[in-house]
## 1
Amino acid sequence: MVTIPQAVLDKLKAAIAERFGIYIRPQDDAPFCKKIHSRVQELKLSTYESYCDLLTSASDLSQSEWRELIRQITISETYFMRDKGHIHLLQNSILPELIKAQQSTKTLRIWSAGCSTGGEAYSIAILLQELIPDIQNWRLRIIGSDLNPEVVQKARQAVYSEWSLRSLTSKQKSLYFTPQGSLWRLNESLCKMVTFYSNNLVDDDFSQNSSDFINFDLILCRNVFIYFEPQAIKKVLHRFHIALKTNCYLMTGHMELHGQKLDGFKVNVFPDAVVYQKSTTSHTSNNPDFRNYPSTTNSLISNSTYLINFPAVTPTHPSHPSTSPSLAEFTSSTWESYRHASHNLADSVNSGSSSHDITEIKTDWDRLAAAESAISRAAYRPALNYLDQIQEKRLHTIKIHQLSSIIYANLGELKFAYHHCQEVIKLEPNSPKTYYLMAHIADEMGKYDEVKQLLKKAIYLDLYFVAAYLALGDMYGRESDRDRALKMYRSTLDILKALPSSAIVEETDLTAAELILQVEERMRWIGVGFSL
Ligand SMILES: C[S@@+](CC[C@H](N)C(=O)[O-])C[C@H]1O[C@@H](n2cnc3c(N)ncnc32)[C@H](O)[C@@H]1O
């Protein structure tokens, strides 16, 4: 493992953050150090300090080294029609609205900021092609910009691998691309719709072509801020605000602006995305407008019918034992386990007292602890407020998503809850508990096939996940699939019998002994219900 003296590492990271806005997270230190090490070797420098000095000098070599570093530290993952939710919203709502509004002038200006190899900008070109019947009469200007000149060059070439086109329909592929060996070349007419620039969004001298970066109807800046430090996001947001026409839109990736001050933007929450609209007033908002969001009004806690409602077949049996965890139980125990997993943060800020008693909220740890405490008291909106106030979102991303999923699940805002679970999974793909929570949410949403898949994933990741076996057994039971239900219950019993009888089983709040009785009762009930 490469070790760079902490002071030099801090200096390098600070220089990168200042210059490009890019924040290297502590968990990314190891790969970052490796990259720096290879640059030091390549340049035949004797120390890391001299590399740092080279970067911060005003020489030509410094400029070319920065260019090399950009190549190394930026993440250029992109593809056509990325993020189905966003594309759906653009196709069905945002773009049709803009097209309608611009009918008289027939002009539209759209900016894909942080465009990488161009998939996003060209996807917009394709959507416009499909949405505007008299496109030849329109003056459309789509601009793509990126810090990394190498990806901009590729964007201009417009030749893509099959993989980059994976989200296009076969019709779109054959209509808009020409095969070129194993690759696909975008047709000339679409290429002509987009102009690419290489520039740095956080640079004060942003662009030599700055007159082209004004009067936008729509700015897309997705999966860029996720790598930025908060001050840089603030700066770029201000830039976008100036560049947008009033009432026009900014779209970022999910959660990328969560907790940012959004001066001058109105926040619209749609089921598939959050969209920021430049407002006429100097309206400030940190709080989303949920008007477009089809939330259920019932709290999951007060209205639970989850996996425990297994016996869809209840003709003769009076009442089925309901002991596998309801979401309410699940939520509180999950909250507990998250709490312990997260550096015992409540303890660190509040040793000895109940987390309810937090009086001084100064740090992000305090805010997290306060949010957790609020969740435990079912004070979900205040919990969200605490999460909103967290300054260093990037340091706490997983935790924020975990807590948000629990909060939204309990508020009945299932799509949001589900979305936050998905974000956790992106960052922690091997998290059985998150799949388990998703299964509960999917169940509440009526996505029963998905429930089974999610529970299976949870079991795959944790072969001793009793609550997941039990829930899956209940699912099969609901579907009158007696054999599979019994199989799951038997697996549950096998695991439970290997545990000390007084052990509390995760996600259930029951002891192994209590749960064994409950599972056995279920198995007997299956015998009655299915006329064994
Ligand atoms: C993950 S890609 C996102 C591409 C595309 N927006 C998408 O969502 O598919 C992030 C891009 O942001 C660019 N980027 C990072 N920092 C930047 C900066 N300061 N100015 C402009 N672009 C930047 C990177 O070079 C990279 O190509």
## 2
Amino acid sequence: MLMVISLSIWSTDWQQSLWVIVTRMWTLRLLSKLKRCNFSLSNELEALLAEKIAQLIPCAEMSRFGKNGSDATTAAIRLSRAYTGRDEVAVCGYHGWHDWYIGSTDKKLGVPEATQSLTHKFQFNNIDSLEALFKKRKDKIAAVILEPMNITYPEADFLPGVKALCQEYGAVLVFDETVTGFRFDLGGAQNFWCYTRLSNFGKGIANGMPLSVVTGKKEIMQLLDEVFLFHLWRELLSIAAALATIEKLEKQSGIQKITTYGTQLKEGLEALISQFSCSDFLSVSGNPVWSFSIYMLMSLKSYICGKHSTCKRR
Ligand SMILES: Cc1ncc(COP(=O)(O)O)c(C=O)c1O
């Protein structure tokens, strides 16, 4: 059995708290510049943020904001369905708790069977599994949604292969950048791995304040005139927090800093694993900005049992 733990929980708490306090102060500074504002209605900051995202993120021409990652993945899927006139979706990772995705997992209790049957799985770094799915479902697949990277790096031809299959079969490629966004690069992982037409962001964009974004090419995003998303979602504080976060990431080389700290953390842990001969059951994986420690639980048990005589006796 594998157990995967995000290394971010091990980052030093005082640094995290300081970073949060500083971005919150930055947010207040931004808000104090506004002559008029209503925290729950549309505001010019929203347009400023959409413009900023369009400058930074390759696929971003139009954006719409939500509150959490699941809001934004669901928005991307609904838009893809509207754009293609198709119903089915191909997935290969975690994309939130909403019915269209969670119905394809073992946590599907409460999700109608009709909904479950619309989502199909393929494997990351296994282009044949996606091709087989496209061949089977032919012109039924509206969107292929995946994280450009999770624990393992994409093989060189995997993401371009996914993009080519989407083009061939007329499906929308969606990059779920809830985790990679504003961590791998200011332009997201899509800035250095094959461009997509639609993507979603969350988490890192407002440094912990509740905000997510669905963004993409105009020809798809303009369907928002008719596709219904996020009634009365507006909340100015998170929009201001995102502008403040991006400003700080840009001015203070934030991405380089988290890469450096993450690399130190990863290398330090790898050195300890080697020093204490734990490599049979513990390893580190992922990009330095979002690494995981992976435990092989059975090997861990035999390691502990080998060390402790009480355990041996049982
Ligand atoms: C890749 C990815 N997509 C979507 C989500 C859903 O985000 P939220 O929990 O904010 O709804 C998550 C949450 O961890 C995620 O990691």
